[in-house]
Fold this sequence. Notes:
The chain is 35% helix and 20% strand. It is built from ten helices and 18 strands. The strands form four sheets. Strands 7, 8, 9, 10, 11, 12, 15, 16, 17 and 18 form a ten-stranded mixed sheet that branches. A hairpin with a 6-residue loop joins strand 17 and strand 18 (526-530). The chain starts with 27 loop residues before the first helix and ends in a 7-residue tail after the last strand. The mean pLDDT is 93.
Amino acid sequence: MLHQFQTSIAGIPLPGQFTYPFCYTPHPLCVRAAEEVQQYLARHPEWSEGKMFGVLVVQTPDEGIGYLAAFSGILAGKNKHPFFVPPVYDLLQPDGFFKKEEAEISALNARIRQLEQDADYRQRQSLLQQCEADAEISLAEARQALKAAKARREARRHAPGLTPEEAQSLVRESQFQKAEYKRLERRWKERAEDIRRAIAAHEARLQALKQERKTRSARLQQRLFAQFRVLNYRGEVKDLCEIFADTVQRVPPAGAGECAAPKLLQYAYRHGWKPLAMAEFWWGVSPQTEVRRQGSYYPSCTGKCGPILKHMLQGLDMEPNPLARPQTDKAPEVVYEDDALVVVNKPAGLLSVPGKEEVASVYSLVHNLLSPGCDLLTVHRLDMDTSGLLVLAKTQAAHRCLQAQFEQRLVRKRYVALLEGTVPQDAGRIDLPLRPDWHDRPRQVADPVHGKPAVTDYEVLARRNGRTLIAFYPQTGRTHQLRVHAAHPQGLHCPIVGDALYGTPAERLYLHAERLEFTHPVTGERVAFCSEAGFRL
């Protein structure tokens, strides 16, 4: 599985530190290795499914340099293929416990489907619906008859010449008719209850099977995760249950340990090879919900791989997290300031607010400029890689007013972006609901079922040399909304230039918040601020 470079790597220096897997620029050796893997993949057009692949450049004890290759999950129905490293644990081995228990669970699924589709069960459900409908009609007619009889009795009671015997007869008639109604009501209830009991008995068997399936699936997952015993560079071993025990989710997510990165590191450690650099790239068709581009490099996922790699990389001299330091030396420019608010022009590469690391942000830098004791409150945010106008409040009252305007969509915003590709329409609207990718924050995915509404209007400003300069008018404020709406095939299918998450990295993300208009929280007047983007087509 250790591949020698087929092209010359002479003159390419070895990396000084191992790749920080969650934010990186691929090392030239990884690029060379990925190109060779992609040439191999091109010879296998039958692998048409989209898949994440990874390469790991290693150094052998005799100081030889080579690389390993891996794919995430299963490729063409198999988790083992020549050329690629094997899985950390082979859950598809025919005689293994996983395949046997999976067959038992599949049998349970078949029994559940059979019970759900049982003809007698469905017929009883229909009978119950018909019985309840007939009962409602019958009882309604009986109530109407009672009402009419009561009206006749009342008329007779008020008529002249009513004898005591007739009055008693009317009372007995009323009592009899009420009792008859109760008997009719009871008969309908008993008829429906007989059907319900039969349905309940069937559903009890169904629920028992579903509970058994749930219990056995959970037990199988736990047993499976215990088989994934992963190494780190120090030679220490932990299984997935131990690794995830101290995380927020506590239980490993489905598919944990089957991504390319853990496979690569595990194989290198088992053979005593030193990892030098790693990169992961997408190959094949993009999923419907995500934005993946063939040949583009991507960071490791944080949900499944984050805790695993935190263990596996211990002992390696790793690059520091690039996001733990400012990506720019530029300070935010104050565009406007009064006693209620301050508007700044944020440079690309600067956080809007402090993150987990103690890194400079617009908030901290502007706060330092204000008089001691002066409040500064965040109203909205821009992505770290996005430049442009940002408003901050200086009083609680201003903060409440401005935040309400954002929530009620009373703030008008205009962004300018440079896109890779040509947008054919001059203007239009993108309506594509979004939600977080739970296993790979902060990425967002399109999800028409569970996503939150996300709407963007756009206007093309210029087209030249295969690129488009565009104005975005977001009607909602979802995370990465403009970036996903630009890149997704159901959006414009033209990623923003420099978008490392949804497109191709460049010297910066070419997205700028150019105009911001809102009602001033003190004067009540509409105010607008403009800051032209530092790029054009």
